[in-house]
Structure formats: C-alpha cells, structure tokens
Amino acid sequence: MKYKCLVLDHDDTVVASSEAIHYPSFIEYLKDYRPHLVDNYTFESFIIKNFDPGIVALLCEEVGLNDEEMKHEEKYWLDFVETRYPTAYEGIGEIISDFKSRGGIVAIASHSMTKYIERDYAHNSLPTADVIYGWDIPKDKRKPSPWCISDLCER
Q1: Is the bond preceding 144 in cis, omega lying within 30 degrees of 0?
Q2: Please, which residues have CB within 8 angstroms of residue 10's CB and are 6 or more apart in sequence?
Q3: Is-contact 126 13, C-beta < 8 A?
Q4: Number of other residues whose CB lies within 10 A of the CB of residue 26
Q5: Each residue of 97-129: pLDDT tens digit?
Q6: Which pTM value belongs to this model?
C-alpha cells in the first residue's frame, strides 16, 4: 500500500450534511428570525458563502446577527443536527472498508463534532474511523491547522 493513512473530511465528503442539515437549518432559522432574507439564499449560494467568506461572516455580516443572536443560532442549529441524519455518499463505505482491510488507517479531520461524526458513521453503517479530529479539539488545532496531520505522523 502506497499510503498508510487516509484523511477524510466529514461534511459533504463522506455524508451529504449541507443538503440534509446545514442549509435546511439555515433557511428555517431565516424563516423564523429574518424572513425577508430567505429568498436571498439558494443551496448553491449557501455552499459558496460557506467556503468564502465562511459561515461566521455570512451570519454576522450578511444576515446581521449580533453575539447574542449567534449563540441562539448555534443552539437552533444544534437542535436541528440532533434530529437529522445525513446520508453517506454512494461508494464511500466501500472505499473506507477496502482501505482499512489492506491495513490502512482512516482519520477524520472535520468541523463537525466528534459525537455527530461517530453517529453518522454508525447510522450509515460505515467502518469506524481510527482517529477523529472534530470540533471538540482546541481551536488552534482544528482544521485547517496542520496539527492534525502532524499528530497523525507522530502516531
């Protein structure tokens, strides 16, 4: 095997979470708290804005949420995540299984919380990842920091 470790993102790489959770949550939040903005965001524009300028800038600068509203929106989103399960992309389970069966290590580096990554893998009957670096680790070590890769190399 040429590569010993496969490092995957979670959201929209292994599971279709923006389609199932993130965008619908965003739209529902807007319907409840900024209904005049709902028509401004298609799924495609939401995805693009999540990439640049990022979700925090989108919520603060475009939607106009203040610090208190940001905490409320995060709670709203977490409640949404608790009751919805994204579907794994076709073939990803086979890719992970095949890689692990040949002795490979599977790591996840994601902005999702570890408990949701584990839940989504179980829900989709995906092989368990060997290492997960989720939103739960210290901010300075989270993706896109190279810390995760450095830690994997040390292991």
Answers
A1: yes
A2: 17, 108, 110, 111, 112, 117, 120, 134
A3: no
A4: 25
A5: 999 999 999 999 998 999 999 999 999 999 999
A6: 0.87
